[in-house]
Amino acid sequence: MTIIEKCIQNKIPEEVKKVAQEEKQPVEFIAKGLVEGTIVIPCNISKLQTTNYKLRIVGIGKGLRTKINANIGTSPQRINLEEEKGKLQVAIKYGADAVMDLSTGGNLREIRKMVLENSTVPIGTVPIYQVACEVSQKGFAISGMDIDHLFEIIEEQANEGVDFMTVHCGLTRKNLAILKKSKRVAGIVSRGGAFLAQWMNINKKENPLYEHFDRLLDIAYNYDVTLSLGDGLRPGAIADATDSAQVAELSVLGELVKRARQRRVQVMVEGPGHIPLDQIEKNVRLAKKLTANAPFYVLGPLVTDVAAGYDHIVGAIGGAMAAMYGADFLCYVTPGEHLRLPTVEDVREGVIASRIAAHSADIVKGVKGAKEWDEKFSHFRKDLDWQGQESLTLDKEKFRKFHPEKLNGAKICTMCGKYCALKISTEIGV
Amino acid sequence: MTIIEKCIQNKIPEEVKKVAQEEKQPVEFIAKGLVEGTIVIPCNISKLQTTNYKLRIVGIGKGLRTKINANIGTSPQRINLEEEKGKLQVAIKYGADAVMDLSTGGNLREIRKMVLENSTVPIGTVPIYQVACEVSQKGFAISGMDIDHLFEIIEEQANEGVDFMTVHCGLTRKNLAILKKSKRVAGIVSRGGAFLAQWMNINKKENPLYEHFDRLLDIAYNYDVTLSLGDGLRPGAIADATDSAQVAELSVLGELVKRARQRRVQVMVEGPGHIPLDQIEKNVRLAKKLTANAPFYVLGPLVTDVAAGYDHIVGAIGGAMAAMYGADFLCYVTPGEHLRLPTVEDVREGVIASRIAAHSADIVKGVKGAKEWDEKFSHFRKDLDWQGQESLTLDKEKFRKFHPEKLNGAKICTMCGKYCALKISTEIGV
Questions:
Q1: Which residue of A has its CA nearest to B79?
Q2: DSSP string of A3-35?
Q3: Is the ipTM of this structure higher than 0.95?
Q4: Which CATH number among 2.60.120.10, 3.30.1360.120, 3.20.20.150, 3.20.20.540 corresponds to the domain A40-365?
């Protein structure tokens, strides 16, 4: 039985109780969200049976704290298992709620094993990456992909315990035709989307993830893998935002959400990408409407194209706004996005930026404890209580580095010294 | 004659033409904005007479590119003229449109002289800082400040060529009483505001900058110094945002804007501070309404209190939204805000983050050339033209560092290598 089926039969599973506890919400609220499809708890059944409860069980969706995901993984150009382990650890240490292993270089099974064994948070993958790599190793282009091979890899990863998978099911032939007619600046920027488009283009066939969606549902059902319906046609440039190809794909994803729900399979929906500030609200509302409030998982979004090297900041701006308007899950963007495979330090920067975005939104989303966190922190700040602030800040190491201990006794910082406004404010009783 | 008077008499000064050229707007548009008070061009008359036109003339206000300011300056704890010079240079190099010297440590005249001599952008100050330092050097608390001394320093700085000055004129006794009745978490977080409140509290007198506002206008008129009406009661915690003290002060600033305009003195208005995401639009619209669309200059705003060490990102989130809703001038926030006097590196990070925020907003504000910049950049990205991207990116040095040259020939980056979506996209003609 999937977690949804258990909730329908009112056999509330442990995971639902754990999420309820962490979110300070009634168990019934979480269960109802799962049944209605507004909440997912990515948690592979085979993992639950084999691991103990050290795992953080993470709920994503309406009424819950905004969650963040960190992408790690090798590329053909950079393959280092230890570095990937370092990225995983740093991502979790700084507060990633989920990690995706997007490796496309080296021994993918070995890397995924390491990630699954060492992660305390849900793990996601994009199975078609492995398919593409294996096809490539045999000397073929992705167009040589065999459909059975694709589903075998999906099942293999499900069997290993992957909790959620990005599947670009909405990139249909019809939508590819829409894209071809449009005058996009950046074309396709999704790797999975590009692989499928290339396959479809050469083989003149329908997207197998769309055509055989029931086969996908079978696997997802058997392992209770959460499907993350990817946006292979997401805009990769401000100029391409909210265009007909993007909206057409989203519309298909909405249909597939219904089918997944009918099958009692957990499903969320992915969103862009590059969106200008004034289209973020529209994008979130449209996604929620077309997908009947499925949890919405956005990449960034990025509100300008030109800030390479600083896309964690660009993504934090877009992510904060998207989450404010209802996005439930933010995929981080690292400073290195568009330029290089992220380093361990890039991962840290990306996670922190994304947490800032998520928390800023949670303050106004009414997430329990969010406002209180800021208020408590600011009381410490007013009292010039540096230890108190450090205990509540996002990055304690940076806090210590930036605030040298020698000044602790004086209760001031080097910014204003004796001219500290907070000190004066307290002296005059305001 | 002030620049406003010249425009009224239709003697369009050179500075107006320069701004019109830079903004790709008709000269008449700029002149009209100056006369109506929706645009300022901070440019001290005495400076104009003595320096050549290497100075960048900067317009701030409605219909113009969103500008950013970088605060530099010493504190009692850190005094290093060379470091301040480094901050000034880095701020200008990375795109600050204005710099404020907020020094409170060391020989303030010497520091300001260095800043004025080396800056190619408008320079702002907060004159009461110098007053407080001089009073303190004499062994007194700020409550010992003499009113004539305050105005002498203001005139001295105007005479030296300071282009704009923050003056906390709206912190009246009435507003201080409102603050005292309120239950703020963080009290007063503005240094200038705190100095004045302490003075008023002990001397039981009205804020001299409010009481003698006409004296201030005389000086501003004589040198055509742009007044930046400071928000001494700005919220310094999310919990304090948009409270009665803040709004009461803003209301007074609105009155003072009228008086400055009557005197043909350029004036802008400062805004917070710490504001949750869902109050930013309201804050900007309220400020514009109460001040009859005076240029609005915000500090951040910061959308959460808890991210010490990363407040440049927090400020970029708030700044992008504020600018989208009409803020004209963003004061950067550095990673070190709340923890330490910014270093040269902090200044660089702060300027870049603030530029990202301003530009993201300019894309949707309809600022000429903003969208086009992104589109051109994205064409280079699609074509895997790394030189082209580098030529248009915000930080060329970081771009080069993040994208190693050795891969240039291969037209890929280490992120995806041969699995590059853009490459595939081009191959299949989309």
A1: A414
A2: HHHHHHTT---HHHHHHHHHHT--HHHHHHHHH
A3: yes
A4: 3.20.20.540
